[in-house]
Automatic annotation (TrEMBL):
SUPFAM superfamilies from the UniProt entry: TPR-like
Source organism (scientific name): Rhizobium mayense
Family under the similarity heading: Belongs to the YfgM family.
Protein name: Ancillary SecYEG translocon subunit
Primary location: membrane
Pfam families: TPR_21 (PF09976)
Entries under InterPro entries matching the protein: SecYEG/CpoB_TPR (IPR018704), TPR-like_helical_dom_sf (IPR011990), YfgM (IPR026039)
Transmembrane segments: 31-52
């Protein structure tokens, strides 16, 4: 199955803010790494190649699961070392998954700057599937809400906040949060209102946007424009 599978995008969109991408990778790993292994009818050499590549992917998968287990056990340094090995010598899409997971672990460890740099780098690589690039940019943007400026958040997320983008809900959310934190309540209202007005916004994102809109209105710092 392709990387832009609609169900994958929908689930990632809803889980980005909870900072639990690990569960998404586990749940949708088989989609991300390309789906079921193709059964090839042909020459023995061709079949042998696919057998070999399948074994390589299986080995990388085992290593990836082992790294996740180390992370679950709070053995962060060991998990990062295991993920680094997969990044260097893994097969299929596991090196990319390892990079994403390692960046999340960096953030959990307190290396926010390193995590932002890692996610941002993935988001700029044209060889990476668009859905993963966008997810990485959003992860960088959410981390920047606490540590950066609105402009830095916008540099990662604003291009994703357009109607045609599957991640527009999360992009508008992070831009609204960044504007709110920066004290630009008028801009925050615009982003949160865009979420509320979009009938496809996930319920959790829409509810948070409405709550923040109510807070902004109650504060009187960004009154509703009268038309």
């Amino acid at each position: 199955m392709a990387f832009n599978d609609d169900s994958f995008i929908r689930e990632v969109n809803e889980e980005l803010r909870s900072d639990q991408l690990r569960f998404v990778w586990r749940r949708f790993g088989r989609f991300i790494i390309g789906g079921a292994v193709l059964i090839v009818l042909g020459t023995a050499a061709y079949s042998g190649y696919h057998y070999w590549s399948g074994r390589q992917a299986g080995s990388s998968g085992d290593q990836f699961i082992a790294a996740l287990t180390l992370a679950d056990q709070n053995k962060t340094d060991d998990a990062l070392a295991a993920l680094a090995t997969i990044e260097k010598s893994g097969s299929g899409s596991y090196p990319l998954l390892a990079r994403m997971r390692a960046a999340t672990l960096q953030a959990q460890k307190g290396d926010t700057a390193g995590a932002i740099a890692a996610f941002s780098a993935i988001g700029k690589e044209t060889s990476v599937p668009t859905v993963i690039r966008d997810a990485a940019r959003l992860r960088a943007a959410y981390l920047l809400v606490d540590t950066g400026t609105y402009d830095q958040v916008a540099a990662e997320a604003q291009e994703l906040a357009v109607p045609a983008n599957a991640f527009r809900h999360s992009a508008r959310d992070v831009l609204g949060l960044a504007a709110y934190k920066a004290g630009d309540f008028a801009k925050a209202r615009q982003w949160f209102q865009a979420i509320v007005d979009d009938p496809q916004s996930p319920r959790n994102v829409g509810n948070r946007a409405q709550m923040l809109l109510d807070l902004i209105t109650a504060s009187g710092k960004a009154p509703v424009a009268k038309g």
